[in-house]
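# nightly structure sweep
# worker-07 picked up a monomer target from the shared queue
# config: single-sequence mode, recycle default, output format = structure tokens
# input follows
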Amino acid sequence: MTADLVSGPATGPTLLRGDIAATMYREYLLLTRNRTNLLLAITPSAVYLLLFATSLSRLIGDVRYEGRLVSYPEFAVPALLLSSMLAAATTAGTSLFQERLGRMDVELWSYPLRRGSYVAGKLIVSTLLILAQSLAALGVSLLVFTFRWPPSHWAAILCGITVASMAFNGLYLLLATLFKDFQRFTVTINVLAPTLLFASPSFYPAPQMAPVLRWLSWANPVTYGIRCIRDGALNGFGAAWPWMLTLLAIAAVACALIGRSLMARAREI
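# output follows
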């Protein structure tokens, strides 16, 4: 009677073990070891929050939104959360582009790494990082403002932040797969965030926007992220769920296109 010492039990990889876990750990180190990128994703939003707390909130007072008056901090905080979210998504997108530019994917796929695990690990970790930084921005806002939203509205805010993180992570990673020139990518990804933010009803109600910008805002994904979080904060799930579904659809389409683009890249190697 002989024992087979070579072959082990036929167990497949799980989420917490194998190439998916290794990819997730690698992505976590890539996105968190660079302290400069983390500070750039959090610091601007914290500064904006302090400026609003000390100056603009007293200067502007109340604004009319959906037929009722709300305080300006309640109106503007969702836009500040989106600002932090876009900064964090920029970090994730830049990481993927630099990896492709340095042909690190060639080295990775020289190992027994499933391409689906590579895509899944990158999407999961970068989304979690964006979500964590968005929640950190929300925590800063709670330190400088006083909100009296009911628990159900807070639950809607958290759900809105989650689906918005998924959507914008997908969009920025997709953008990173479409560029090949470093200068064009750098200029585009750094100009895109403020353009999207200020071309949406972020710090001003939509009726007060210029007519052209108002029409263009409907093609701006940031508009749906802001509306999702803002409506969840002010009116709860009943007003926020259509925007949540829209963001989930954006996230699903973006992730599918990312997977397709990276798989096409893998076939070229």
